[in-house]
Amino acid sequence: MSETDLKDRALVETKRESGERVALDDLLTPEVRDFCAHHLLRLGGDNLMKLFGHMLSSDVGWVKESAVLALALFNSPRVVPLLRAVHQKEEGPLKELAFKGLERLAGMGNEGASRVVAEITATREPPRLAVDFANLED
Length: 138
Hints:
The protein is mainly alpha-helical. It is globular, with a radius of gyration of 19 Å. It has helices at residues 3-18, 24-27, 30-41, 45-56, 61-71, 80-89, 92-107, 111-123. The protein is 68% helix and 0% strand. α5 packs parallel to α7, α6 (80-89) packs antiparallel against α7 (92-107) and α7 (92-107) packs across α8.
C-alpha cells in the first residue's frame, strides 16, 4: 500500500471515529476522478444521462451529490441542463455544488455553462445591508 493510500485511510478513519462526514473529495484524487469518468463514458452518452437523471431524482442526499460531482467532470452541453435544474430546484450545499460544477465547465470553455453561470450571477440578489438609512442621524 502506498503512502498516499495510507494517508487517505487514516483521514477517513479519523473522520469516522469523530462522527464527521467523509466527503467524496476526501477520497478522490484527480487520478481516481479521471479513472471513474473514463469508465463511466463506456456506458455511452444516452445511458449515462439516464443514470444521472435517476441519481438526481433519488431521495438519498449522497446519491444526488455524487451525481452533481460526476456531472461536473463531463464537459458536454448535455450535462448543463441537469446541473441547471439542480441549481433551480435544490437549496443549500447541493445548489452551491451545482453552481460550482457549472462554473468549472464554463472555465473549460463550455458555452452553455457560461451562459447559465452569467444568468445565475445576474439574478442573484446583492447582499442586504443591515443599516436603515431613513433613521440615520447626522
